[in-house]
Structure formats: structure tokens, C-alpha cells
């Protein structure tokens, strides 16, 4: 199964770090990310610019509303996402717990909706999966 | 014959339903399919046991037939099974229409390994909200139907059914594993299981909600599940190495629940009013259960790893073990609460610690401890009640009455209000 690890942390604490401290954390995060790559678990890793760089758009009654900033003000902000492939939730949770970010932020583990599985189930229903 | 058949079916349902479901879920990876297949197998048993006699191993017979029913069901709907090995395992064995009639069912219906530990850990996985884990545990491993569980928790049937649907959906969509957690996760996951069992117990015990005849059943179910957990862990042959600390806490929780439950008849008076520990008629305590609870606690402490459930059970044992309330060893109880605070520092434990210190002969010290936390507990009835009781013991009557008044102000439950009013008059 595919899972997204959404990495949340308080941007302010990150911004308050010295350059050395920041480099230290980045090295740890890279080591963790590499360990997932070597284990053949990691599909994709993306880091995000801070929420100050975000713009939110909504369309209501045909009218586009564009606002600066993230969609909601929260204590911790989304800072990046990792797409991983695991055999079950506990495995994904274990990778998340190993992340250096787990020590100062929060990681939301979300299963990815498997469109292929859904499509396959639909087509097997038509064909009759178990008939010879 | 008819009666014997119905009795046999009821017996196997009561004793083996959880085990059959656990096996089926492990095999097909789907709670709903397992439950449907078991229903079908029970219907088949009604017909075939009457004709061919009750099988030697009814549970194994039902498991075998339910597996075939599950395959039938998958064939009919054409749905892909969660576990791709399912059709291969049973496909091409026989004509599905004839299955439960054949002698081979009797021959094949051999013992299945007990998978209930996997089911407990899945139902109580921390990824599920507690109310969903509780619902799933009671309806699969416990002996309650959805309607009975709804009645026990005083929620509409549709609400309880919804909790079960959501729990099963999350298990499937989020890919919760069906397994005994590996050693590095075991302590955390066991804690989650014990929490669910204790929540079931306290829901049955607490008087904060309305009335229901199902509520005492929750206490009994929680104790039954506690015994099952203890048995499964002790008898597990799958090589799980449960630490002594974990075993000790399973026993600790079991002992705690047995000891509290043993006082159930003395706790509520003829008019439904609550009776405090010191005024309970000790003749109404279940002596045999207290003896058992103490023996379980002793077995726990023998393992040499203290834990919060064992400490709470030890406190209960000190209350239960004396002939009269005056003989209670409050100094030891205060010490146990002090140790408990090291595991979980909560307002309620602080409150109990303060009361125990006061009862141990240091009322001033107890009152000071109590009042040190009063900021957090202003809206908590038991805080004002405890303070009132302490002031009264110290002879500060008018202050005590004011504290009783505060307790009344923040207590909504009718029985608890009656209890406070009773204390004011006493």
C-alpha cells in the first residue's frame, strides 16, 4: 500500500535555529530519507517553501477568491511530504517514527486511495473474477 | 432433538464465536465477509446438524463451512478478495451447493489455531478512536450484539452501527495489519488494549449516565476479555515474548476490575442511591471474587514489575481486605497513590493521594495537598466533596457545608446529588 507522510512542524522554531543547528537537522533528515530509499520504500520526497509562500484559491458562485497564506492558520504547518510504499500501516508508522521531524513536529500518515485497485475490482466484477 | 440443536448452537456461539471470527478474519482479511459467512454457516448448521447430528467439534465445523460460504459469496459478487490466496485455498475443492452436506466436512473440520490475540490487537489498534475500538472489541471478541452494545452505551443503534462501519472501513482503507505486534511495538500496543478493556469496565461501573440493564454486563464483559487476554498471552505458542512488565500489568488490570466489581451489590442502596466505601455493608461484598482478585494481584506482583494497574489493584485490595473501614491502612494507601503519581500525574490521582494522606492521620497536610490543586479542579464535583469531608472530620462544620454546596453546584447527576445531600444531613 502507498502512504503519504505529511510532515508538520512549527515554522517559527525552524526559523529560530542557527545555521549550524539547521545543517545538523537537514543532515539527519537526509540520512532518514536515504534509509527509506535504500530499503526500497521511498517513492517520492518533496519539501515545501514556508507557508508565507502559499496562496489559497477558492471559487464560490463562479467567483474566484484569491487570498495570501495557507488555507488555515494552524500551530504546526505542512512543510513537506514523502510518498512511501509499505505492506501495512504499522510499517508506515515505524518509518514515520524514525524521522528526525517526529521529535519536534507531527507526522500525519495517510493511505493513498488506490485508483488502480478500484478499477481492477470494477473490471473483475464484470468479468467474474472466480469463473473459469 | 430440536432443543438440543438450539442449545448446541447457542453454546458454540457463546464460547467460540470470537475464535471462529478471528480465524475467518485472519484468513479472508475482511471483517464483514467473515461475519456474513459465519451467519450463513450458522444457518447451514441449523439444517444439517439436525439431519446428521451435532459434529464432534462444532466450532471447527462452523469455521470450515464459513470459509466455503465466504468463497461462495466472493464468487457471487465477483468481488476481489482482500487476500489473493483466498480463492486458491478453497477453489476447486467441491461443488459449493453440496459442501456442508458432505462427510468430508466432518473429517476436515479439524482444529484451527487460535487467532484471537491478533484480533484483540487489531480491534484495539491506536489508529482507531477508542469508541470504535470498544464497539469492535465487544461485538467480535465479546459476546454482545450491536444492539446490546448500543443499549449498554446508551446510544442509538444507528450510532453504534456507524461506529462499527467506520472502524472496519479504517482497518481496510488504512491497511491495519492483522497480527500480534512485534516486540518493539508490544508495550505501546498492549497499553492500548488494556485502555480499551478498562474503558469498557468503567463505562459499566460509572453512574454518570442514565440507567440501563446492559451496563453491568459491560463490567462482566471487560473482566471476561481480561481473562481471555491473560489466557491467550500465557498460552500463546506463536513465540511472542511478552515482557514480565506487560504480563504483570495484564494481571494488574484483571485484579483491579475483579476487586472493584466484587463490591457492586454494596455500592448501590435499595433506592438506587450510591453508598460510599466506608458505609458499605461488607456482607454484600462478593468474598470469593475478592479472594480471586487478590490472588491475581499476588501473581502480578510476583513478576516484580510495578505498574499503574497493579498499584490501583493494590489500593483496592487494601480496601477490600479489612473487616471494617476503621482498619484501613491509609498510610500504605497514601504511599501507593504517591507511587501511582510517578506513572501518571493526573488531578484525580492527586485528589485521592491528598485524601489518603489526610485519612492516614495528617488531615492538615491532606487538606493543604488538596487545596494546592484547587485551581484545576473547581468544576470537579469530587474535589469539593472530598474537601467537604476533610473539613467535616476536622470539625470545621461551616466551611464543610460551604464545600458541600460547591459540590452540589457542579454535579449534574441525580444520584450523585442525592449522595451529597445525604452527606450534608448526616
CATH third-tier fold name of chain A: Alpha-Beta Plaits
The number of distinct helices of chain A, counting runs of at least 4 residues, comes to: 4
Helix content of chain B: 55-70%
Largest sheet of chain B: none
Q: How would you sum up the major sheet of chain A?
A: 4 strands, antiparallel
- Radius of gyration of chain B, in Å, reads 25 Å
Distance between the termini of chain A: 28 Å
Oligomerization: heterodimer
Gap between N and C termini of chain B: 61 Å
- Tell me the strand percentage band of chain B: under 5%
Q: Looking at the structure, what is the overall shape of chain B?
A: elongated
Top CATH class of chain A:
Alpha Beta
> How many E-type strands of chain B?
0
Structural class of chain B: mainly alpha
Which two chains share the most extensive interface?
Answer: A-B, 22 and 17 residues
Output the helix-strand order of chain B. Answer: HHHHHHHHHHHHHHHHHHHHH
Index terms:
heterodimer, A: alpha+beta, Alpha-Beta Plaits, four-stranded antiparallel β-sheet, two-stranded antiparallel ribbon, 36% helix, B: 426 residues, mainly alpha, elongated
